[in-house]
Give the backbone structure.
Amino acid sequence: MSARTHLTDLAPIVSDVIEPNAVDIDRDAKFPREALEAMGRSGLLGLVSAEAVGGSGGGLREASEVVREIGRHCGSTAMVVTMHYAAALVIEAHGSRELRERVARGEAVTTLAFSEVGSRSHFWAPVSSATTLDGDKIRLDATKSWVTSAGEADLYVWSSKPLEAEGASTIWVVQADANGLSSPAAFDGLGLRGNASTPVTAKNVTVERDAMLGPDGGGFDVMMGVVLPAFSVFSAACCTGLMEGTISAAAAHVGGTSFEHLDGSTLADLPTIRAYVARMQVKTDQVAALMGDTIAALEGERADAMLRVLEAKAAAGEAATEVTDLGMRVCGGAAFRKEAGIERRFRDARAATVMAPTTDVLYDFIGKAAIGLPLF
């Protein structure tokens, strides 16, 4: 499958919807509904769904290219799509055929609901409960701390303690319109302002037993085998897009800003400016190369695949903060103006290092892997 085919499908959505709306989405903390609807119509929301259920049959490589391209123009939209693809992969692996077909047709925006108040960014250790009621009815109670697309998605891929089995967690699919779900407040954050990332509370939410995704108590394997690789790759793709967008905006500024008193020479004629832009390019290319090798490691089932997964998100988050900071420095006072597009990406990039698994947690895991210690 060619990622280029999907990028061709994406191009008019970017030019007609995503790019023109990026400023409004950031200013008004507006969820990118129009972009998602356009992606649904084009088949891009069903990119990672199997062809057998009406999807495109794409994988991490194709989906990461889509996220990366969106990230060049709108970080909020890229993060919403990141969460959709990560959750859709879980549904594709463990959901019913009816559910898989719904996602494949682009009729449902999906997201992950893992992080909780009680376990913070340790998303693999939910403290929320699942309780058997009469027959096949299951009651879910939880206080989820941050859920992207909260109140906007159609399906939540949800974690809880196991219902009856041993293990760390169990995964469910929860309809967003289920009675007992609530999002207490709208998101008004520093960056990624359109991604509707808010807490979600579940009080006596009832689902059917067949809403379970994978075996009871098998949630940890789903998280490590499906979610973590996908989210790390897509997060790196989102960061890469933000960095590339920053470089493009910075290059346009320095190339078009002249010194009239110096015979019209531009900022780009200054060696110091070019050196800063070079650093931005090198950092971005390093992350892109690591992301590509991570995908290759996963596709080839290499022994170092999990190490690459951990490294990709950590490196991308750190590089994105550095590159967007350099973009602010390169463009000077002009970068503080909204129309330059630099400060928006500067703010958006800050989320990657604190989004679970946080960069500090990843460094601990990477250190354990390098030393030969078990991760958990």
